[in-house]
Specification:
Blueprint: H1 3-12, E1 22-27, E2 30-36, E3 41-46, H2 55-68, E4 72-77, H3 78-83, H4 85-102
Parallel strand pairs: 3-4
Antiparallel strand pairs: 1-2, 2-3
Helix pairs in contact: 1-4
Organism: Pelagerythrobacter marinus
InterPro entries: DUF559, Endonuclease_DUF559_bact, Restrct_endonuc-II-like
Pfam family, one: DUF559
Amino acid sequence: MSLPEILLWQQLRGSPRGIRFRKQHAAGPYALDFFCARANLAIEIDGLAHDMGDRPARDEDRDAWLRERRVETLRIPAREVMTDAVQVAEGILALVEERLMAMGKKAPPSSLRDATSPSQVDGEDLSAGPPANEPKERSR
């Protein structure tokens, strides 16, 4: 992880406001900087290299691939994270909350879950444990 990614992860880890994020999340042929499965949102921190060479075209291809799987991409310049990681994290949390409200608090299924780990539709939610009517899984 780059320094801006580390700074942002320090703000997003631990499920702030009950919102869970994954870092360096595998999605088909890509690794997403951060991913919020409940909101079908990928978060990419873009340094200067993202403006050079064929990188803009590659980023567009990646965003299109994710969009086909109903995952939107939020691109944030690394310099913004370096300036104020707390403010950037607050903006991300506000966007996720807006998306969840628009979705009725439950994300629609994403075909990304076919290529990655389970999403909210497979049981990931805000609770710290299983629903009250389900027994906790026993460790072996």
